[in-house]
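Our preliminary data section would be incomplete without showing what the modeling component actually yields. Below, a chain of 81 amino acids is followed by its predicted structure, encoded as tokens that our downstream tools consume directly.
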Amino acid sequence: MKTIAQLTYIPLYSEHPKEQVQDLIEFVAQHDVEVDVNYLSTSIKGDTNVVFNLIREVYDTMTVEGQKFRFHVELLSPTQS
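Predicted structure:
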């Protein structure tokens, strides 16, 4: 089973929000998930445990770095492929 998550990361109070979003996309791409970058969000598809662990890792990383942000996660129903 594969899980699909749509991630929207919005840096707050940042002088370089585009760079922060690009860094996040590069971070996500290093994991074992399919990545589809869109104008307002990034979709990831992969094993359910990998997707949920990645969501947690992204959240924890941004929190540890002390950044202010909004992080929207939308989960779609699982697929077989």
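DSSP finds two helices and four strands in the chain. The helical segments are 17-29, 48-64. Preliminary results of this kind motivate Aim 1 of the renewal.
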